[in-house]
Design brief:
The complex is a heterodimer of chains A (281) and B (280).
Chain A lengths: L25 E12 L2 E13 L4 E5 L6 H9 L6 E6 L2 E2 L1 E2 L2 E2 L1 H4 L2 E4 L11 H11 L4 H14 L15 H13 L5 E5 L7 H18 L2 E6 L2 H7 L2 E6 L4 E7 L14 H15 L3
Parallel strand pairs in A: 3-10, 3-11, 8-9, 9-10
Antiparallel strand pairs in A: 1-2, 1-4, 4-5, 6-7, 11-12
Helix pairs in contact in A: 3-4, 3-5, 4-5, 7-8
Chain B lengths: L9 H4 L10 H29 L9 H13 L3 H32 L1 H16 L6 H8 L3 H25 L3 H9 L4 H38 L5 H10 L3 H29 L4 H4 L3
Helix pairs in contact in B: 3-11, 4-5, 4-7, 4-9, 4-10, 6-7, 7-9, 9-10, 9-11, 10-11
The chains are: A alpha/beta (281), B mainly alpha (280).
Chain lengths: 281, 280
Amino acid sequence: MTQETVVRRSEPAPVAPPDPGRAVGLRVAGVDKVYPTRRGEVHALSGIDLDIGAGEFVSLVGRSGCGKTTLLRVLSGLLAPTRGTVEAGGRSAWVGGRRDDAVFAEFGLVFQEANLFPWFTVVDNVALPLKLRGVSRGDRRARAIELCATVGLTGFEDSYPRELSGGMRQRAAIARALACDPSVLLMDEPFGALDAMTRDRMNLELQQIHAVSGATVVFVTHSISEAVFLADRVVLLTPRPGRIRSITPVDLPRPRAAEVEATAGFGELVVALRRELDQED
Amino acid sequence: MTTIESRTDGAVSAAEPTAETEAPWMRRLPWVSGPIMLLALLGFWQFTVSVVGVSEFILPSPAAVAGALGDLLAGDDIWGHIGVTLLEVIAGFGIALLVGVAVGAVLGRVAWLQRAVQPALVALQVVPKVAFVPIFVIWFGFGPTSKIVMAALLAFFPIMLNVMLGVRSVDSGHRDVMRGLGAGRWATFRNMELPTTLPYVFAGAEVAIVFSVIGAIVGEYLGGSEGLGYLVVSSLNALDAPRLFAVIVLLAVVGSLLYVAVTTVKKLVIPWHDSVRTGV
């Protein structure tokens, strides 16, 4: 059942996460991000309000410079919002410009680049979050090997990152983000640098990881079809200043196979979102 | 978590070919070409002496130099001279390593301080530092101390400048990872900043060990009665060309061994680095 519904600021879509006890929701209220520059202030984000349900998969789409990465960095705790609040599981993530590390410790981050440490092997990279938490060497290695299997890196545990292809590096980065069983997974165009075929496969795998882990996922991308394929809701951002233009629920049944992209419902959603993006100019 | 069962693309089974998968003969080439070039040099040398007929005072024959080298090594005091030079080089290099890493790390982190001392650094760098040797002899005497100071001064700059660059070269993406994980200062240093900087420390050290030898030898040329540099000068004063050449051969061997020692430590400490894998 796919009717074209473009709703502004809709309620969180009803999702039943497999592990509702652990997942947390995110609430963004009135968030502004202003950068002072030589030519005056730049509004990267303006009045962002967004509720993300526990276990929900939300895609942020928009053109370059629309503030989607800035919003994700605010959610990740890497960038303090100028105004507004960010809550995770009802707990305030930023208190007076200072981040609450306990909140962000629950988050797993995946960046555009894999950002693996070249001096660590794949297992050591994957186990890094566990090392920082003081997990013993043997335990974290065992867990890292398990995670490598999850992302399809079995046999490459003791390789160095430079020996891996781009797709494999990104898998390792995802495994690292999953190491501490994050309740929230924040991903900034993680597959942007990959070729189309690898990207399709990674999307299928990510869908499975989301289903199995039950984590809340916020996924930044500039590909509308990728956003629709993965998400429960697609948030469209427009630039200067970065604002939420629309929030589109995607009620395609899960699990979604690659063939879902050929269905009428999928196509309508993509066309509607693309039209909205074009209206900006 | 379950395993994702998708193992169809090439990406999982085959990694992209990288620089280190070069042909084995490329790796062995230096071990073949080195001896060949050495033999060619010796052959040309012998040819110049015996066929062209260059004076023994200007160019002694390889055999004469080998004989002088044998006499030197059979003598009692040669090991003492080698020991003195080694001590000066290693002490100077060690001091430069400690001070260079410390100063480089501070200047790399504290931007205003680096700007403030920039003029002094440039001035010190462009000055021909071996010109200081007489001053060091006045200050520290004719013993090994003045040579150690000279070796340390020459070795300090490549280490300090490289460390300064290394401290600043931490990848912003890597920083994001550590910040995202809420890593503390010590964990960030151990897992990210130190491994980032180590290749720069070794790049500096490889240059610095060569500079230390230069510093010690120049110091010995100008004053004192010990060390291989002193032996060079005393051979010259005695117009003993074969011995002069033999000491220079010894110096080349000592310098090469020290350099190899540094690169070996590098290979053990940062086996993951590009410079180790491609042999550059």
